[in-house]
Design goal:
By secondary structure, the chain is of the alpha+beta class. The protein is built from 2 helices and 5 strands, in the order αβαββββ.
């Protein structure tokens, strides 16, 4: 995956996550507890990481075996919050279209 698309997708994800934090009550616990839950129950491991805002870390966990995925945010106080989860995970790598081509 190229850097501009990756950066844009992480930025978009950060906006979604910030909205989720502001308007819902995410499930939060220690980082150790949340990562253990994701690994033990769903077989998920970390697949991506990025900054969400100025002080939070966003991570994507997924399992190719179970097909599940989870998005977490770790806050400055050390709490990790489960923001979104789902199924049908598929890792993809796509190149940019040639300049001048329409998508």
């Amino acid at each position: 995956m190229t850097h501009p698309i990756f950066a844009l997708s992480l930025g978009f994800g950060g906006v979604i996550l910030a909205t989720q934090i502001a308007f819902s009550a995410p499930q939060c616990d220690t980082r150790e507890a949340v990562t253990a839950l994701l690994a033990d129950r769903f077989g998920e491991t970390r697949r991506a990481i990025g900054l969400a805002g100025d002080a939070a870390v966003m991570e994507v966990f997924a399992s190719e075996v179970t097909g599940t995925w989870s998005i977490t945010v770790t806050l400055p106080d050390g709490r990790m919050c489960l923001m979104a989860s789902g199924s049908g995970y598929e890792a993809v790598t796509e190149g940019l279209p040639a300049k001048g081509e329409r998508i």
